[in-house]
Design goal:
Helices cover 15% and strands 42% of the residues. With 302 residues, the chain is mainly beta. It has a 5-stranded antiparallel sheet with strand order 1-3-8-5-6, with no helix packed on it. The protein has a 5-stranded mixed sheet with strand order 2-10-9-4-7.
């Protein structure tokens, strides 16, 4: 009898020990899952720069578009996100491969104040949330393929963040209108935003004119120049419409595609807006999409 009781006590003790071990393991796993990654130099491996910034290409891939003097043109919205401690510091964004791929036809600007400059790189200033945006225009004559875009923090610890941007060859795509990015955190200083509006129709409508309407965003942006529609021409970026709710006569290429960069310049109120694309001629088909303006907020990943 004593032997049986001893065995039962031993089994019970082992069960308690195993349950305790699982409890400890679960606690450790939960701790690791919620542990914020340290970004100080002391947390890095010897020789590794600290993680202070990230960079995004929006979109990460873009199909080259356009007709005649604007053929094989591209655009991108480049976002840099750094720790807030680097607010108001400068970051150099470089796209040397894309500069070569687009036959040295590369232009940069910020949403406000619109003033494009050409070259393989540009410099932006981080706002108080640690964010900055650069609008990129490439072409005409951009060759398909992948290129790297790098963001270099211009103060110590001089870290570099890298992303990729893929130029895709032209092709027929699903009809519709799309805003890329579909949501954008506005700048903390001027409350400015930027997105690329891509229009895709059946190729039977090649070289037909299309109208882009962004009346809701125009109403949300309170001060001049309020809204700019910018396209790529044979001589680089060109403002098609300024201080207007819409731009008229955007020409579809042979695949039925076209794009224009939309810049909300100053004091744009947060919230969703509708953007429409309509054929100027019969059958007057209209597509619509939603673009969301988000209020300023630190976005550097935890």
């Amino acid at each position: 009898m004593t032997s049986v009781m001893e065995r039962r006590n031993l089994v019970a003790g082992l069960a308690i020990l195993i349950v305790g071990m699982f409890a400890l393991t679960g606690t450790a796993s939960a701790h690791l899952a919620h542990h914020k990654k340290a970004k100080s130099p002391a947390s890095e491996q010897p020789g590794d720069p600290p993680e202070t910034c990230v960079v995004h290409a929006l979109p990460s891939s873009f199909m080259d578009q356009g007709e005649f003097g604007a053929a094989s043109s591209v655009a991108d919205i480049v976002e840099v996100e750094c720790e807030e401690v680097y607010a108001e510091r400068e970051v150099t964004i470089s796209a040397n491969e894309l500069y070569s791929r687009c036959d040295h036809r590369l232009w940069w600007t910020v949403p406000y104040d619109y003033s494009p400059s050409s070259g393989p790189n540009t410099t932006v200033t981080l706002d108080n949330d640690g964010n900055a945006t650069a609008v990129l225009f490439g072409g005409p004559s951009c060759a398909a393929g992948e290129s790297l875009i790098a963001a270099h923090l211009d103060v110590a610890p001089y870290s570099t963040a890298v992303t990729s941007f893929v130029v895709m060859p032209p092709r027929v795509t699903e009809p519709g209108v799309f805003a890329t990015p579909a949501a954008k955190v506005e700048g903390e200083v001027y409350s400015d935003v930027a997105t690329i509006v891509q229009v895709e129709f059946n190729p039977v409508f090649a070289e037909e004119p299309v109208n882009i309407n962004a009346a809701q965003l125009y109403s949300r942006c309170r001060y001049k120049p309020k809204l700019l529609f910018v396209e790529v021409s044979s001589g680089g970026p060109r403002v098609r419409s300024s201080e207007s709710e819409e731009t008229l006569g955007l020409t579809l290429d042979n695949d039925g595609n076209a794009f224009v960069v939309l810049l909300g310049a100053q004091s744009c109120a947060a919230g969703p807006v509708m953007i429409e694309a309509s054929l100027e001629n019969a059958p007057y088909t209209t597509y619509a999409t939603t673009f969301k303006v988000e209020p300023p907020v630190p976005t550097f990943p935890e």
